[in-house]
Amino acid sequence: MGTEEELMFRNFQRLKSYIFDDEKVSTTTSREQQKTESSVEKCFDRFEQIMFTDPRLTQIFRLEHQYYLDAMLRRLPSNYECLDSSRAWCVYWILQAAQLLSFNFDDQTLNHVVQFLSNCRSPTGGFGGGPGQYAHLAPTYAAVNSLCIIGSEQAYRAIDRPTLVQFLFSVRDSDGSFRLHVDGETDVRGAYCAISCAKLLNLPEPVIKELFAGTGDWIAQCQTYEGGFGGAPGLEAHGGYTFCGIAGLALLNEADKCDRQALLKWTLRRQMTYEGGFQGRTNKLVDGCYSFWVGATIPITQATLSGVDKQMEHTLFDVEALQEYILLCCQKQSGGLIDKPGKPQDLYHTCYTLSGVSIAQHSECASSPQVLGDTINELLPTHPLFNIPPKSVAAARSHFSNSNDTEFLGKDSPSKEES
Ligand SMILES: CC(C)=CCC/C(C)=C/CC/C(C)=C/COP(=O)(O)OP(=O)(O)O
Ligand SMILES: [Zn+2]
């Protein structure tokens, strides 16, 4: 790794070549190139001024991020209008980022959050993006993850498994694909969100079998000639959908339905040589959020291969370079994290950059994390398939294993939708 000064110098060189290197210029469109150059140039100027004088630059700005998350949670009831349908998501991004930083909210605040998410629950099952909104698979995933992170009795009680199962069947198509909402669009996010909720809530095996009949084959059809997954069969491979594809398949124990060697090659090529972070698709720009979407795909794919190929014991991407990109280029001094230099902070990027750093630190060896820089930079681990703490996954699955499976009896038979 070298001394801190060497590390900073390396990053300085990387940013410099990012601006001036011809090869980089030729692989981006001119509009994007201009945007990148001006934002990176600003960052480059700032680096020149402070790089060698402020060693704190290689530290996670813990307090600033905690302050930002706390302030955003308190603003939730009156969140920006443009985020009105993403309020369940905002809760999840805040709780997940906070727990990675070992930042705990007090019980009263968490009780308010549970109450808020209960208000987002739809009478027809599942959760909407905000109170009184139609159920949608994405906020359902966000709400279920949030309630499992909180993990109190009251939080678990806010999840109504029988109506949730009915909602899942109502958005399933007969080929095993899932719409995001009733009469909505079909893509691999839908399949992943449905599978993740079903597994986390430990639905009985016969329900899982019926709900996901054909789903693994449908997801496998989303893998493209490049090796990554598109949103639906025939669409361009993209990091976000690729995560959904392989995580969904892995949760169903059907990862062997896709070409994992091609997937691994495509995914590893998404790590940018200069920046150290990941791009989401071929010939596009680096973005901090892919630290999770692409970063988690790599250990997931490796884990599904490890029985087959013993060479898969070490994380194949450069975990140090990814941490450098996030720590040095994606932190706002006022709190929160970003896509790339020049962008404003937001909750989505705060959650997924930190989740990616956690993956980079913990995927190599559970007992000895690969932490770049000061030990203060160590984050708590995250479960790569659900992106909540591993201990929350275990607690939720254990809690719901004790639930009474007969709660599903007497409801409308799930198999009606197939007929
Ligand atoms: C669980 C769940 C809901 C997962 C969501 C997965 C996810 C992030 C999908 C990304 C969708 C997409 C095509 C973004 C492209 O944006 P862009 O063109 O602005 O970005 P780009 O230039 O980086 O491709
Ligand atoms: Zn992003």
Automatic annotation (TrEMBL):
Could you tell me what reaction this enzyme catalyses? L-cysteinyl-[protein] + (2E,6E)-farnesyl diphosphate = S-(2E,6E)-farnesyl-L-cysteinyl-[protein] + diphosphate
Organism of this sequence? Drosophila melanogaster (Fruit fly)
Domain of life assignment? Eukaryota
Q: Gene symbol?
A: Fntb
Free-text cofactor note? Binds 1 zinc ion per subunit.
Q: How does it assemble?
A: Heterodimer of FNTA and FNTB. Heterodimer of an alpha and a beta subunit.
What Pfam families does the database record attribute to this sequence?
A: Prenyltrans (PF00432)
Name the chain's protein.
Protein farnesyltransferase subunit beta
Recorded hits in CDD domains, A to Z, give: FTase
Q: Where along the sequence do coiled-coil regions lie?
A: none
